[in-house]
Write a structure and sequence with these properties.
Elements: E1 2-6, E2 16-21, E3 31-34, E4 37-38, E5 41-43, E6 50-52, E7 56-58, E8 63-66, E9 71-74, E10 80-82, E11 85-89, E12 96-100, E13 110-113, E14 120-122, E15 124-127, E16 130-131, E17 143-146, E18 151-153, E19 156-158, E20 161-162, E21 169-172, E22 177-179, E23 182-184, E24 187-191, E25 195-196, E26 200-203, E27 208-210, E28 213-215, E29 218-222, E30 229-231, E31 235-238, E32 243-245, E33 248-250, E34 253-257, E35 260-263, E36 267-270, E37 275-277, E38 280-282, E39 285-288, E40 294-297, E41 301-304, E42 309-311, E43 314-316, E44 323-326, E45 335-337
Parallel strand pairs: 3-6, 4-7, 5-8, 6-9, 7-10, 8-11, 9-12, 10-13, 11-14, 12-15, 13-17, 14-18, 15-19, 16-20, 17-21, 18-22, 19-23, 20-24, 21-26, 22-27, 23-28, 24-29, 25-30, 26-31, 27-32, 28-33, 29-34, 30-35, 31-36, 32-37, 33-38, 34-39, 35-40, 36-41, 37-42, 38-43, 41-44, 42-45
Antiparallel strand pairs: 1-2, 2-3
Length: 338
């Protein structure tokens, strides 16, 4: 067994060692084993795949660079936390893969917390993340971003789940940039509690979303003695001012069962002044099953005291109706133009 030292420091300024172990990988080849702890330096393709066997952190002041074609397998419910800089730049031919060792195993995703500007995720695949713990570990199945502004481009986020918020991405106090990503088949909701944003949840944030395809995501709730809410099959924005430009948002659903409220098959805005320019929002729905008390409103968009500006946006074939705006103010708070 060989030792490989990568520039990283612990609280005792000791080097973190990567142990190059010949263990089975998904492809049946040698793998580099990453124990829990601090990581930095470079993960190169020649040592891929990497198998993560504990929670790992890029500490403040440090950078982890991941080369194109690297595959990273998390062996259990571990996370990659980023307080420093993560530079994961793949290519269309050689994307970077973040996943688990098998489909029945889940991990806790990449979690940016108070990270400085400069982190990049490009041509990455992020899949099988699950945020199912106590708050804040119940949000952001694939990416949890708090007080950080990473740039995320040409990535695929698929098959991620969160118990409460943001099946794929949770944004908190963030002005992240998301462009040309595919965000597909992510979900949020664990039954009796309220849930928000099948694909993306944001709070106190002003992200820019451009050219993304957001499809086949869902929020699902089920009531009994309580009446939970399922809000935003694709996007939920609370007290946020996102800019959504030239995105395709389609085939997302907010669904409820028994006594529950579902609103915003595609998008739910809670306060804020969002801008929607040149988007296509189609074939989304808010569904609710039988129950003593149930509501389903706003197939494409539901706004609660929000002031959205909608320009040159196609809103088509969403159920039960296209747009539902609740407002106690003047009737012209929502601006729609072509």
């Amino acid at each position: 067994m060989n030792k490989i030292e990568i520039s990283a420091s612990s609280a005792h300024r000791a080097s973190v060692l990567l142990f190059l172990a010949f263990v089975s990988s998904a492809a049946g080849i040698a793998a580099t084993v990453i124990p829990g702890g601090e990581v930095a330096g470079r993960w190169d393709a020649s040592r891929s795949p990497y198998r993560v066997q504990g929670d790992i952190t890029v500490p403040a002041g440090q950078t982890l660079t991941i080369e194109p074609g690297v595959e990273i397998f998390f062996e259990s419910w571990y996370s990659l936390s980023v307080s420093g800089t993560l530079d994961a730049v793949g290519t269309a031919a050689d994307p970077i893969l973040f996943t688990t060792v098998d489909p029945d195993t889940h991990w806790l995703g990449v979690r940016f917390i108070g990270a400085p500007d400069g982190s990049r995720l490009t041509h990455c695949i992020i899949e099988r993340g699950q945020a199912t713990g106590a708050a804040p570990l119940d949000g952001g199945g694939g990416l949890y971003i708090e007080g950080s502004d990473p740039v995320i481009r040409h990535c695929t986020l698929r098959n991620n789940f969160a118990k409460r918020s943001g099946g794929a991405i949770h944004l908190e106090d963030s002005s992240a940039t998301l462009s040309n990503n595919l965000i597909v088949n992510n979900s949020v909701g664990a039954g009796a509690g309220s849930a928000f944003g099948g694909a993306i949840y944001m709070r106190n944030s002003s992200p820019t979303l451009t050219g993304n395809t957001i499809r086949e995501n869902s929020v699902s709730v089920s009531g009994s003695y309580s009446t939970p809410s399922g809000l935003g099959g694709a996007i939920y924005a609370r007290s946020s001012d996102p800019k959504l430009k030239y995105n395709v948002i389609t085939d997302n659903v907010a669904s409820g069962h028994l006594n529950s409220n579902v609103r915003g098959g595609a998008i739910y805005f809670y306060y804020g002044s969002p801008e929607l320019i040149g988007n296509t929002i189609s074939d989304n729905r808010a569904d609710n099953g039988p129950g003593v008390y149930q509501i389903a409103e706003g197939g494409a968009l539901y706004g609660y005291y929000a002031n959205p500006v909608i320009v040159n946006t196609i809103v088509w074939n969403n159920l039960p109706e296209e747009i539902w705006i609740k407002s106690g103010g003047p009737p012209n708070l929502t601006e729609i133009s072509y």
